[in-house]
Amino acid sequence: MKIYTRSGDQGTTSVIGGRVPKDHIQVETYGTIDELNCFVGQAISDLKGERYSDIREALLQIQHELFDCGSDLAFANPDGKTFKVQAALIEQLEKWIDQYDAENPKVTRFILPGGTSAASSLHICRTVCRRAERLVVTLAGTTPINSEVRSYLNRLSDLFFVLARTANVRGGVADVEYIRSAEVFRNEP
After folding, report:
1. Is residue 41 part of a domain?
2. How far is CA 178 from CA 91, 93, 108, 172, 183, in A?
3. Model pTM?
């Protein structure tokens, strides 16, 4: 198989069951999910050492699931029968959020992205994930989609936030609170 097909030279690309312009919101949406997947790979590379092995393993699983998200959004006429993203994937994200957040100090104010290199990479993942989520919302306004993808990305961005904080904790670096922030988060007992 050749890498180049020349079929996109006129500005269109294939989706499952058809072709659309390369600047179509559908392509922009799953392309942003692909971009996010690349940043997740970068975060995995930044999480060096045994203390991060569990996070690397979770992120590798997420990379596969991001391919599933892109696949679910790449149908010209989705029928719902072949969707890969299901509620169980979201439930797993919630379990990880709870598990890793238990390692973190309570947060009451906004925090600045940064700290360790790994935390910084995970914050980039968080923001690209939020952009992908916004694009999914836009796409859903024009095209039937698997709504579980929207929920998955929403929860995934929360996980990236929690993992960035965990990476800082495990790296011995404190989060930096936004100095003009009031206490905006309620901490449950």
Report:
1. yes
2. 31, 27, 11, 19, 10
3. 0.92
CATH number, domain of 96, equals 1.20.1200.10
Full domain range(s) for residue 105: 12-177
Percent of the chain past pLDDT 70, that is, above it, reads: 94
Q: Which residues of 6-36 are buried (b: 16+ CB within 10 A; e: fewer)?
A: eeeeeebbebeeeeeeeebbbbebbbbbeeb
Number of domains in the chain: 1
Residue 38 lies in a domain: yes
The mean pLDDT of the chain is 91
Q: CA-CA distances (angstroms) from residue 180 to 69, 105, 110, 119, 177?
A: 37, 20, 9, 22, 9
The pLDDT of residue 173 is: 96
Q: What is the pLDDT of residues 41-71, one digit of tens each?
A: 999 999 999 999 999 999 999 999 999 999 9
Residue 188 has pLDDT above 60, yes or no: no
188 is a domain residue: no
77, two tokens: 């006429």
Count the residues in the chain.
189
Asked whether residue 68 is domain-assigned, the answer is yes
